[in-house]
C-alpha cells in the first residue's frame, strides 16, 4: 500500500450519510461547518440518479447545508460524458427528474441503453425493449449498480439488480460509471489537485462508498446511518479504515486524527 | 461429427421441451411450430417413449395442456414434467411457506400450499407481474428472513413469443440474487433432479434418453450433464451463435422438431 500523506480532501456521500431523504442526519450541518473550518477540500459524490444536480442542491439548501453546485459530482454527470464520448443515442431508463442532466442528447432510434434508478421504467415491457436493443449489440451503460437503498418505508431495490438481470439475459457486461468504479472517484478528485492517498471518503454503503474508495487508494469511513445494516463492515476486505455512528463522528475522527 | 446412426444409436426415450419446440407462445395463446403437431403424433406412434419436460411457469400444467390440445397436439397432463408441481413437493417436504411472485395463470398450482407468514420466495415467469413493486415486495420478504430462501422455477435467460424475444425468469432471479447477496435454488431445467424425475416418470435410463430443446444451456447443456444426449432445434429462441457456444455442444442441430423426429425414427433404437 502507498505511504499515506497528510489528508487534503474529504469526499462525502449525500443520501444516507448527510441526510436520509428529506431529513438531515442529526448534527450533520454543524459537523460540515467544523470540517470546512479546517484546511481540507470537500466534495460531495453521489450515486443518486433520481435527481439532477439542481434538485440535489435545492434539497441540501432546504436542509440548511452549506454546499455549492460545483462541489457536487454525480454519476449522471459521468454517464452523460460517456454517452457523448461514444456518440450513441441512448434509451434513457432514468427517472424523469434526472432528464435535465441529459438535455440536448439525441434519443431517437436508440442504439444504447442508459440505466439508472427508475422504478417507473422497471417494468416487464420496458425491460424487454432494452433487452432487445442489447441483443442487437447496443452497449449497456449503468449509472451505478447499487443493490438497494433506504426509503422511508424500508429498503427498496436499486438499479443494480435490474442491470444484473439485463447482463445475465444478454451475456454481456454493463459499463458502470458511478460508485464503486475507480474512475468515478478519480474523476471526483479531478480539479482538487489531490491524490487518492490524500483523500478520505465517508459513506453509508460499505461496498460502493467505502470499498470503492479504498480500491481507488483512499481511506474509507463507513457510517451506521442510511442503508447501513449490522455487520456490513465485514462485507469487504480489507475492512473499512473506520466504522462509526454517523457523519458527525466521522468528522470528529478526521479533525482529531487525520490532520 | 459422427454419422446420425452412431449419434442416435440406442435411444429409447425422448424428452421434449415445449415452448419453442412445439409452439411459440404469444397473443391468443400462440401458434404451433410448422410440422410439430405431426412430429409429436409420429413419435407417439413409434416404439420410442415420449415425455414432455418444460420450464413453463406462466400457466398451470392443466392450462398448458389444454392450450396445446387446442393447437392440435396429442398430449395429456400426466405426460408433462413441469416446475410448479415439483416446487409444491419441495415446499411441502421442507415446511416452506412461500411468498409467490408468479403469473396469475399458475397460482392455482399452489392452492394447497400454506402461504401465511412466508419464509421463502418462489419466483416464476411472472410476465407483466414483474413490476418494480412486485420485485420489491419479494426483495423485502427475503431481506426480512434470517435465512433467505429463493426458489426459482427455471433460470432461463429469455424465450420466444410470437412478438419477439422476452426476458425469462432467470433474469429476475439474478436480480434478486444480486440484491440480497444470495443464491437461488432452481427447480426446473437445468437442475439434474428435474431431469432425473422426468426420466424416472418415463422409465428410461439417462444414457438411453435424448432431450430435444431450443435452449442451448438449459435444455442441451443440462441434459448432457445428466448423461443424456441432446439436440437443439433451430426454432424458438435459437440464435445462430448457439452453434458456436463456448461451453455447450449439442449432439446435433436440426431445423425443427419434424427433422429431429425423422432422424430418430430412422436411426434410434437400433
TrEMBL record, chain A:
NCBIfam families: HAD-SF-IIA, HAD-SF-IIA-hyp3
Name of protein: Haloacid dehalogenase-like hydrolase domain-containing protein 2
CDD domains on file: HAD_PPase
Annotated GO MF terms: enzyme binding; metal ion binding; phosphatase activity
Source organism: Ictidomys tridecemlineatus (Thirteen-lined ground squirrel)
Domain of life: Eukaryota
Cofactor(s) essential for the protein: Mg(2+)
GO-annotated cellular components: cytoplasm
Family: Belongs to the HAD-like hydrolase superfamily.
Automatic annotation (TrEMBL), chain B:
Signal peptide limits: none
UniProt entry tagged with the keyword Disulfide bond: no
Catalytic activity, EC: 3.6.1.1
GO CC, any one term: nuclear speck
Keywords annotated in UniProt: Cytoplasm, Hydrolase, Magnesium, Metal-binding, Nucleus
Subcellular location as annotated: Cytoplasm; Nucleus
NCBIfam families documented for this protein: HAD-SF-IIA, HAD-SF-IIA-hyp3
Homology family: Belongs to the HAD-like hydrolase superfamily.
Entry protein name: Phospholysine phosphohistidine inorganic pyrophosphate phosphatase
Species per Swiss-Prot/TrEMBL record: Ictidomys tridecemlineatus
Gene that produces this protein: LHPP
